[in-house]
Amino acid sequence: MTFQTACLVDDLSPEEAMLVELDGTDGAPVPVALVRDADGAFHAISDICSHGQVSLSDGEVEGCLVECWLHGSQFDVRTGQPVQLPAIRPVPVYPVQVDGDKVLVDIDGPA
Q1: I want to staple 31 with a disulfide (CB 3.0 to 4.6 A). Which of 47, 64, 75, 83 is the partner?
Q2: What is the pLDDT of residue 26?
Q3: What pLDDT, in 10s, does the model give residues 11-30?
Q4: CA dist., res. 25 & res. 9, Å (int)
């Protein structure tokens, strides 16, 4: 696993999301929605909605769900599974570690 620094712990409040672009294995940036749930835990999922192809980090976070702002699809940030239509396909989920004040994400490893 290759963890990369995504942000600092204090960069995200509970029930907030942000876009981070991490280095893919081919050198191309990979858009990741870094989400802090209502309990303060960090999660990383693909930033691209599997239905509308828009940024999930621009959506509302409630509990462990992030809502796509375009059509209202909701995804569980722990599993990537859609829980609200119109999305029916999950989004990729990435492993997250907190190391001191840094939030690290591994876009190459399974969650």
Answers
A1: 47
A2: 81
A3: 999 999 999 999 988 888 99
A4: 25
Residues 6+ apart with CB under 8 A from 99: none
User: Residue 57 in contact with residue 19, Cβ under 8 Å?
Assistant: yes
pLDDT in tens, 16-67: 999 999 998 888 899 999 999 999 999 999 999 999 889 999 999 999 999 9
| Position 110 pLDDT exceeds 80 | no
The encoded tokens of residue 8 equal 């600092």
Distances in Å between the Cα of 63 and the Cα atoms of 34, 37, 41, 60, 78 are 14, 5, 10, 10, 11
In DSSP notation, the chain reads ---EEEEEGGG--TTEEEEEEEE-TTS-EEEEEEEE-TTS-EEEEESB-TTT-SBGGGS-EETTEEE-TTT--EEETTT--EEETT--S---EE-EEEETTEEEE-TTS--
